[in-house]
Amino acid sequence: MAAGETLLTSARLAGIHIPALCSDPRVKPLGACRMCLVQVEGERRPVAACSTMVREGMKVETHTPEIERFRKGFLELLAGGYPAEALCEMPEKPFHKLLAEYGVACSQGITASIDDRHPYIHIDMSRCILCGRCVRICEEVQGQFVWSAWGRGDAIELRAGLVGSLLESSCTSCGTCVNSCPTGALDDKRVIALGTPTKWTRSVCPYCGTGCEIDVGTRNSTLIQVKPVLHAAVNKGHLCSKGRYAFEYLHAPDRVLHPMIRRHGRWENVSWNEAIAAAAHALHKTIAAHGPDSVGVLGSARSTNEEAYLAQKFARVVVGTNNVDCCARVCHAPSAAALKAMLGTGAATNCFDDIERARTILLWGCNPTENHPVVGARIKAAALRDTNLIVVDPRKTELAELADIHLQIRPGTDIPVLLAIAATIVEERLFNPDFVDQSIENWEAFRDFVGQWRAESVAPICGVEPEVLRAAGRMYAQAGPAMSFHGLGLTEHVQGTEGVMCLVNLALLTGNLGRPGSGINPLRGQNNVQGAAVMGCDPGALTGSTPLMSAIARFQTEWDCELPIRTGFDVLQMMDAARQKRLKVLWVIGYDVLLTNPDMALTRNAFSNLEDVIVQDMFLNETARDHGTIFLPACSSFEKDGTFMNAERRVQRVRAALYPAGESKPDWNIICNVAYAMGGGKHFAFASPEDVWNEIRAVWPAVAGISYSRLDEQCLQWPCTSESHGGTAILFGSGWTAGKKFHLYCPDSQVATEQPDREFPFILITGRTLQQFNAGTMTGRTLHRVLRPIDSLDVSPCDAESLGIHDAEHVSVRSHYGEITLPARITSTVPAGVVFATFHDPESRLNLVTGSGRDRTTNTPEYKLTAVALQKQVYCASEILCEEELFSTTH
After folding, report:
1. What is the side-by-side strand order in the sheet with 60-61?
2. At residue 212, what are phi and psi to the nearest 5 degrees?
3. d(Cα 137, Cα 143) in Å, to the nearest integer?
4. Higher-confidence residue: 108 or 78?
5. Which residues, including other chains, have CB under 8 Å from residue 302's CB and lie 6 or more apart?
6. Residue 576: how many CA atoms within 13 Å on its side-chain side?
7. Cis previous bond, 719, omega within 30
8. Whole-structure pTM value
9. What is the DSSP letter of 386?
10. Residue 509 near residue 432, CB atoms below 8 Å
11. Mean pLDDT of 308-312
């Protein structure tokens, strides 16, 4: 037994069974059930093993006759009103196993309420033994405080929320209480309906870039249940609702299971040989007639590292073009560009474990409790303890409500605010003088520059009081280590890259780099968007995010072929080229470009000019439905092997839990088959994803030490340069500044090109919500549509009153680019003059109204600032009687 651990933990690690009912390793020990009592030599009475720490020289007896009699007696008390049928229905439950172990029978169960309204969770309180695990795990892990005890004595019961309904409470549907419940009082409906899984497979969640490890439970070739891996490096036994429950899309009736070709306007099922031949022919004829740069390839942030690597290799080696990109372009390309330019590596500097080490956390333009819920729960738990929290967001998010300082800035004023914080740090001499003297090469110029952006000058621009701006600067600089997370609220602007560079300024000034609890950390959106970009799905970079021209000679040697040096198109430039009829064919892998690109009318015009659109996906997404000519059915991450890379540079194994459905195939296999059909087979002679990964290790030294065999034991963060290297949790560690000079960035501080005016007086921000994901391709085909059925438009109460808008009334949203209609949601989370909408429902077509503004460095669209007008729709007897243009001249 190891000192510093509880007796219960040490015993379990040693293979010694000590029963426990109120214990869960994810929460603090309580010692309430007394089932884990043990006898320690020298102690007058038995002690609870779950709350007693190991000491050197302890002698412990775990199963004395006296203790065993006590345990059995306690179980008999619990079984007195427990339903006997529960033991037969669910013998695998921990409580039921203990009853069987101690030979305790149940009497007639008590009558208790059953709540079956939640789409995923069944509640039967006749099986509740009041262990309190649901209460504690909801509070300590998720931070929601949903469950509570009501009544006294024998009448005590646990309820969800004030009304006792889980669906109507503040529950986030993460299922952690279900995962902890030892009896089946809380259980997954799918398990009840389809039976307990018979096989478990370790893999990684297919949703956001947090990278939660999961155990996938299957039975009869059906996915039954997903559980969190208890001691996973990232999620530590926790999942959000999407990771735990939103997997039913695998079995959706509209999943495409056969290759298809569109003929005479109709999709027809064909064989794989015919589909591959058609794709190869479309590419061949276009290259022959118009040259390789008339073809574009878009890799997927939902595919594995190996598949993203093959997509960009195919573009360069088989097609002969650098026209290759992925959806990182429309989200965190500015983060990669800024971090690469200022620090040398375009990725997160720290790991999620530094959340618990930070004294201050700065959240800029991100909403983790909704968009990265497991990370958000860890940040929330830190804030509920004593970690300082600064939130910069135009909206009043859940974490903004908890924040010590909330900078509720006007949309588009991020750079002036960042400069005002830097000016406070410089003016009040809160910077690190040794670092500035030794490592900053443009100190005097930067000092003079930010002097023009004092808090008093910036306050009228951003709408935040000067003293609040200064307080934020003082807290970040003085209460260190300070860790920053940022999201698309910072990057999806015309100055997104420059905004991230200004955030890096703050870390450099204060020394919040290269140490635990600090750093600059982009919160990546999709499960493998970090991996797709770093694998080389970027027109200007090869694998490892290495600039094309600096690495091309090495890759030509490794790949044994000539590579194109012509400048390639990113996804936005591909759309421009298609409108100009310079791009003829587009191969789109796992990416609904039509639905998710801004200014949908322009995107649709671009697609209408393409001669062939090859779509590789699980479903007929909007791109395929409207413009696809060849459809190649891909399988899901639950049906293939490979690796993902999360937002903290962690490489993790993905393992197949099911065989591919129908005739669907893994993306890597499809790409290799098309390469063979086009005569490039010798460069794509891979028998497995591991073969592909080993080639990646050969061309990118930073992952040379990350083998599949090592990943089977643990996930590793790059750089990891050899098999003996342990991975790198923190970039730029001790001594990283020695001999280096850094350049603090001085932006020209242009204001956003899109501004509200009399015709378009409101600012529209777009984003995600907790219960749906991106374009809804996956979550929209699950019961999450019950939790969040449609998109809506958030409007502040004062704007709603002035416009005469009520909850759920339909409002037309009009911009320079288009018009849509959404139901209103009146909420104080948005300030006056600002509206917010999600984009998860394809029917809402939100990107018809988003604009054409692009980041000046990376072409990332400006989704976070669109000037709009609101038009209330008045209905009567299901028909529109009148429409009146409504807008406020006060904004």
Report:
1. 47-48, 37-40, 60-61
2. -70, 135
3. 8
4. 78
5. 206, 526, 527, 528, 590, 637
6. 10
7. yes
8. 0.94
9. T
10. yes
11. 98
